[in-house]
Design a protein that fits this description.
The chain is an alpha+beta fold and 559 residues long.
Length: 559
């Protein structure tokens, strides 16, 4: 208990007691009959483990934890799939219906130190409960506690919930620090890096938030070449919190994305948090290995598909100098979604949470949402405009986009900072009689570029947000057929050369970094092995023939 009194932040990761039921009714909150016969590591999805592999139902997690008697505390769950209820000492303390989105529960004050935590996590598809994730999505929907669980001891009053840092002038080191909650006139102490703390008085507050401006001394602007990070610490007399940040400016101008005034060529991949053993709960060593492979491929860019990214992964991107597109959870939203107020409300809530969670990560330069939605329809207007406006208002230092599969039929391209198209010419060919439709690729890309120009949008940066071809690891074919490593190699050779050489293309997120599990059942007829096999490495990160081709072209482009 001495350690608890000394420190304020603890991990609740580790080995939890676990039980599973395929029959449990979600409405049943009676804990008396629950059993926990097994052990499960947290974080990990229960349905990637041998005992529950592929099963749908409710997983039950239980563990003891300690909070000093009479002390306030809060638990943060960084992600639970697909939805969850949390019970502390037998009483419901909170719930969440947004996969991949962090949520918190307050620990009621008690007279005892030892407490009991039970989490019910369900991975059944239920649109009424969880409108953000459905069974037709092209990636597997896992259940369980698959990101970190953290306990924070709180002061008796005036806990600081959030600190956000915004770059105002990347040349002068001028920043704005946002703090919430704060009482009007409350005295704060602020320290940057190892400098002596200075005192500031909270000025005007809006919804409990205040802000003030500071200048960072002896800094280098954050970039992939110089990923320099700083620390700001804010205290209010009873509480103190620290966050890391980087000083940088991102703009879209004259068809380019500028980082600190210099145009970028974004070369990278779409990446799912996926592994056959760990599902989306990648251990830190695997995250580092993925980034080392991406660096070896000559990449500077990652599109985090199709959900909010693990904060630990973004920490690594900050430190290793990768540029990130982060997006909300969605895949192929249709008219019935856009006209459903519950769907729109859920989208707004998760985007707000995403912005707050990754606000201080300089690696995140683009925010997106609604991957491959029916953006050619009038019914989609309100939802797209709401989310675009939400990001612009709450996070003005980043660029706004969404990956459009409707391309030139899309109605809302004028509203975004960056135009982003998903396209698969030569893989899903227009002429199915052509035995080798690789010749479709360049004309198709250039046709879309010309269509953007004719629409008067050539001044917006253009990213190919998905393009690729499938290959089964180890399948080599002398006639270079679909699903062979040979066809994928030639496909990506053509794509990468066009991306690098065409000045009208700002960047690419090749689909995809690694093979990942997707549909079961009839959907898998279009996905051999029930995997999306378009990875340049397979699910175990073994490189396919295309690896060296992409690496050589990307690395040659920066010489």
């Amino acid at each position: 208990m001495r350690q608890l009194e000394k420190d304020k932040n603890f991990t609740l990761n580790g080995f939890w007691q676990f039980g599973f039921s395929a029959e449990h009714e979600w409405t049943d909150e009676n804990l008396a009959g629950l059993t926990f016969p097994d052990i499960l590591a947290v974080p990990s999805p229960f349905d990637s483990m041998p005992a529950c592999n592929g099963k749908r139902g409710v997983g039950f997690y239980r563990r003891k934890f300690e909070v000093p008697a009479g002390r306030r505390a809060r638990i943060t769950f960084n992600a639970v799939g697909m939805y969850a209820k949390v019970f502390i000492d037998g009483r419901k303390a909170g719930e969440s219906y947004a996969p991949y989105t962090p949520f918190t529960v307050d620990v009621p004050v008690a007279e005892t130190n030892e407490r009991e935590l039970i989490v019910m996590a369900c991975n059944r598809f239920d649109y009424q409960l969880c409108p953000l994730q459905e069974n037709y999505f092209d990636f597997y929907a896992y259940g369980g506690i698959f990101r970190d669980v953290e306990l924070r001891l709180l002061p008796d009053q005036d806990a600081i919930d959030w600190i956000g840092v915004e770059t105002l002038d990347y040349l002068a080191g001028k920043i704005r620090v946002r703090v919430c909650p704060v009482r009007p006139g409350q005295t704060l102490t602020v320290a940057i890096d190892r400098e002596a703390p200075q005192t500031v008085a909270a000025g005007e507050t809006v919804n409990g938030e205040t802000s003030f401006e500071l200048t960072v001394k002896n800094f280098t602007p954050w970039s992939p070449e110089t990923p320099e990070l700083h620390m700001v610490t804010v205290g209010n007399g009873t509480d103190e919190r620290s966050v890391r940040f980087g000083i940088r400016q991102v703009k879209a101008e004259k068809g380019h994305i500028l980082l600190n005034g210099k145009p970028l060529k974004l070369l990278g991949y779409c990446r799912h948090e996926a592994h056959p053993l760990f599902g989306p709960a990648l251990p830190p060593a695997q995250m580092v290995a993925d980034l080392e492979l991406l660096r070896d491929l000559g990449c500077n860019f990652i599109r985090g598909t199709h959900y909010q990214q693990d904060p630990r992964f973004l920490d690594l991107c900050d430190e290793m100098g990768f540029l990130v597109w982060e997006e909300g959870l969605s895949w192929g939203a249709r008219v019935q979604h856009f006209t459903d107020p519950n769907f729109v409300t859920a989208q707004v809530a998760q985007i707000e949470a995403m912005i707050k969670t990754s606000y201080n990560h300089p690696s995140v330069i683009i925010r997106g949402f609604l991957n491959e939605g029916e953006s050619e329809t009038l019914e989609s207007e309100a939802c797209y405009k709401t989310l675009i406006g939400l990001v612009r208002k709450n996070d003005p230092t980043r660029l706004v986009t969404y990956a459009s599969q409707r391309r030139l039929d899309d109605r809302w391209l004028e509203l975004v900072d960056v135009i982003s198209f998903n396209m698969y010419p030569g893989w899903y060919p227009e002429n199915k009689e052509d035995e080798s439709p690789l010749g479709e690729i360049i004309p198709y890309i250039r046709h879309n570029l010309e269509g953007i120009r004719q629409r008067g949008l050539a001044d917006k940066p253009f990213i190919i947000s998905e393009i690729g071809a499938g290959a089964i690891y180890g399948w080599r074919d002398p006639i270079c057929s679909h699903w062979s490593e040979d066809y994928q190699r030639e496909y990506l050779r053509i794509v990468c050369r066009e991306i690098v050489d065409n000045p009208s293309i700002t960047g690419v997120a090749l689909w995809q970094f690694c093979d990942c599990r997707t549909h079961r059942g009839a959907y898998a007829l279009g996905r051999p092995r029930a995997f999306n096999n378009k990875g340049t490495v397979d699910e175990y990160r073994r490189p396919k023939l295309a690896y060296e081709v992409v690496k050589n072209i990307f690395k040659e482009s920066v010489k």
